[in-house]
Design a protein that fits this description.
Strand content: under 5%
Structural class: mainly alpha
Radius of gyration: 23 Å
Helix content: over 70%
Number of strands: 0
Shape: globular
Largest sheet: none
Number of domains: 1
CATH architecture: Orthogonal Bundle
Oligomer: single chain
Length: 278
């Protein structure tokens, strides 16, 4: 029986080896070698020239993640407290934009935010632009536009994990806390939120990781003026400044940082869960 199960696992092992392990090994080899194939750390040393890109990427990703959390948690909490019919309708409305292609959704925001876009036309129609004495508001090719694109595209990834945890919470725990004299705020702070931390940490990870490595959103809504790590890596492989060794080194550093962040958040979440149980 064990031999038969092992045979069924062979396609999965081959798939993982070709599409996961092999690219990572190739990335590590490129990161620690030069064009001649000799061992070197020059690619890591040259990353200091792009410190501003690293700073901008993590800063905008953290802002987008925080906004998604501030919006997503109340939405997930409200969904979990309502009945099944409202939950199904809310789920459909949240998932509906995700059925549309990612690039099409981002292009739609370009038509809304551009200088002659829908938003500026609306401001012009209500007289706001005339009041401010400007022809248009510069909404696109800004960091705010990039953060807006991140929040719009990744908000469902924050709502759904939190909702899936909140909807399964045992109501008797809240009732027991109220019987012991806790008010609604204390129940939320000491029972609901700690128990929902696995969903929060999962949502934070699912939003932060694609945000810090995005390149389509920063290129389309940032107009090339807000370069992020995803753009920098793509530039090293496909752009004019072709340097796959530097691109691999940046990718490796990003991967290590993301793995460390995920490990810390997972450890923190487990610690909070144990504290609630105790």
């Amino acid at each position: 029986m064990r031999n038969k199960s092992s045979r069924f696992a062979i396609p999965y092992v081959i798939w993982m080896a070709l599409l996961v392990v092999a690219p990572i090994v190739l990335m590590v080899v490129y990161a620690f070698t030069s064009e001649s194939g000799s061992f070197t750390l020059d690619s890591f040393a040259s990353m200091g020239d792009y410190l501003s890109v690293f700073t901008r990427s993590f800063e905008l990703a953290l802002i987008a993640t925080l906004i998604c959390l501030l919006i997503g948690y109340p939405v997930a909490y409200a969904m979990a407290k309502e009945g099944p019919r409202f939950q199904r309708l809310s789920m459909a409305l949240i998932m509906l934009p995700m059925w549309i292609n990612f690039l099409l959704r981002t292009y739609a925001w370009m038509s809304i935010l551009e200088n002659n876009g829908l938003l500026n036309q609306f401001f012009r129609a209500i007289g706001l632009l005339r009041l401010l004495g400007v022809d248009h508001l510069s909404l696109i090719r800004t960091q705010g536009a990039v953060v807006l694109g991140m929040v719009y595209n990744y908000l469902p990834f924050m709502i759904l994990p939190i909702y899936s945890v909140l909807v399964k919470l045992d109501g008797s725990l809240m009732e027991a806390a109220r019987d012991l004299g806790a008010n609604s705020l204390a129940v939320f702070r000491k029972v609901v939120f700690p128990l929902s931390l696995p969903g929060v940490l999962s949502g934070v990870t699912m939003v932060f990781v694609p945000s810090v490595s995005t390149f389509a959103i920063s290129r389309l809504l940032g107009g090339g003026t807000q370069m992020m790590l995803g753009d920098l890596i793509e530039q090293q492989f496909l752009g004019g400044s072709y340097d796959p060794h530097l691109g691999a080194a940046i990718s490796m550093v990003m991967m290590v940082i993301v793995v460390v962040c995920m490990a810390l958040m997972t450890h923190f979440g487990e610690g909070e869960e144990q504290a609630v149980v105790l």
